[in-house]
Amino acid sequence: MERQPEGVVRTPGETLAEAQGLLDAGKPFHAHEVFEDAWKSGPDAERALWKGMAQLAVGLTHSARGNATGGARLLSRGAEAIAPFRDPHGIDVPGLTAWARELAGRVADGEEVDAAREAPRLTPLTP
User: Fold this and answer.
1) Rounded to two decimals, what is the model's pTM?
2) 100-120: b or e for each residue (b if 16 or more CB lie within 10 Å)?
3) Which of 36, 71, 72, 105 is close enough to 63 for a disulfide, judged by CB 3.0 to 4.6 Å?
């Protein structure tokens, strides 16, 4: 599968929309690359946020590929990284941290993961 182009500068909204589409399509590694672009090109104050988001996506990648140890570790690490942020760019931080911690526990217990079915919502759904 072709990789995402690297070094693309996007607005936070564009980053979230593109990453959500990739997650929904079962392509969490590609979403990780989108978050990595934001982490590397964004303001210093948000680097930990975007790095944590990338860790969540790559944690889902490892989990779906059967790497339970790596998947659980990255999901937990990503949850810890984003937890201090409060409503950045509409990101559902409480929902994502709860999703990541719950999934990390299931993965550590040996549950198989389908990346598309487990894709989180990055922002709350609007009516």
Assistant:
1) 0.92
2) bbebbebbbeeeebebeebbb
3) 71
- At 74, the amino acid letter reads L
The tokens for 98 are 């709860």
Long-range contacts of 27-32 (CB under 8 A, 24+ apart): 27/1, 27/115, 28/57, 28/58, 28/60, 28/61, 28/64, 28/115, 28/119, 29/57, 29/58, 29/61, 30/1, 30/3, 30/4, 31/57, 32/57, 32/58, 32/61
Banded model confidence at residue 6, pLDDT cuts 50, 70, 90: low
What is the tens place of the pLDDT at every residue in 47-65? 999 999 999 999 999 999 9
Closest to 81 in 3D by CA, of 68, 95, 97: 97
Question: For the residues 4-28, what does the mean pLDDT come to?
Answer: 90
Q: Which residues, other chains included, contact 15 with Cβ-Cβ below 8 Å and sequence gap of 6+?
A: 34, 35, 37, 38, 50
Contact by Cβ (8 Å): 86, 35: no
Half-sphere exposure at residue 13, Cβ-oriented, CA atoms within 13 angstroms = 0
